[in-house]
Design a protein that fits this description.
Layout: H1 2-34, H2 38-42, H3 55-63, H4 66-98, H5 101-112, H6 116-129, H7 135-159, H8 163-171, H9 176-184, H10 189-204, H11 208-213, H12 221-224, H13 236-256, H14 258-266
Helix pairs in contact: 1-13, 3-13, 4-7, 4-10, 5-7, 7-10, 8-9, 10-14
Length: 272
């Protein structure tokens, strides 16, 4: 029996290695290219053996002032995530405990509908209010992506928490709101962390809303990458260095929180 399993396990591991390499190679090539000159990147010779240079990173932070864009992206992503949690957690709890399926379906539709559908109405509204190129418009527009996602992750998580815990708290004198804040939220940490990370990443990488609603004051990292693209040429070295700068913070965040991400995503998978 074990001899039969050995070829199967070998093929499974081989397939796993192939999938991992397919996903990691573009990231590995991006890091290598960020330390190359334009000529080295465009050359097919000596792909892995070259004289590294830090000039691309110096250009990113000195010539293109990327620190400003990093701070803008971080502030907008953090603020939109926090506000989405404040609104989304009570909404998810209400949907889960009181079976408000119509409300849940409405939020799901808002999540499914392409964001570009809301882009023109939002631009008109923010233009009338004088809020284009403001942090308010950027945060609210990014919440359009993060809030429904947080709700739908947390609905399944709250449904998996035994209602007896809240009933016991209410017997001891807690109100519904007190049981939610003191009992439900503390034991929902993995789900909340998972939802927060995904919401932050969606906002960090958001391009469409930032392209239309941002300006010199609120320009974010995805928009700043355009600085390396021109009509006649592309600064590949600077572009790869900028891509590393954009990717690295999110990657580090995901690595540190991977335990919570896995437990948060699988919490609602098995019930009973």
């Amino acid at each position: 029996m074990s001899k039969r399993r050995d070829p199967v396990q070998f093929l499974q591991r081989l397939l796993l290695v192939a999938v991992v390499l397919a996903f990691l190679f573009p990231f590995f090539w991006m890091i290598l290219a960020s330390f190359k000159t334009q000529q080295q990147i465009l050359s097919a010779e000596n792909i892995f053996i070259f004289q590294p240079t830090f000039q691309n990173y110096l250009d990113v932070f000195q010539q293109y002032s990327f620190m400003k864009f990093i701070l803008n992206s971080f502030f907008i992503a953090a603020a939109s995530t926090i506000l989405s949690l404040i609104l989304g957690l009570p909404a998810a709890y209400s949907i889960a405990r009181y079976h408000q399926n119509k409300l849940g379906m409405t939020i799901l539709v808002a999540r499914i509908v392409p964001g570009i559908t809301f882009l023109i109405p939002w631009f008109i509204i923010f233009s009338k209010l004088g809020l284009v190129d403001s942090y308010t418009s950027m945060i609210l527009s990014h919440m359009l992506v993060g809030l429904p996602f947080i709700v739908w992750i947390m609905v399944s998580y709250f449904e998996n928490i035994p209602s007896e815990l809240e009933e016991s708290a209410r017997v001891d004198g807690c109100t519904i709101q007190g049981a939610f804040w003191r009992i439900v939220l503390p034991i929902s940490g993995p789900g909340i962390i998972t939802a927060s990370i995904f919401s932050f990443v969606f906002s960090w990488n958001n391009f469409m809303f930032s392209l239309v609603l941002s300006g010199q004051k609120t320009e974010t990292l995805p928009i700043a990458v355009f600085s390396f693209l021109s009509y006649s040429s592309i600064n590949w070295g600077g572009l790869m260095a900028a891509a590393v700068v954009i990717t690295l913070p999110v990657l580090i965040l995901a690595l540190f929180a991977q335990k919570y991400i896995i437990s948060g995503l699988t919490a609602g998978a098995v019930k009973g």
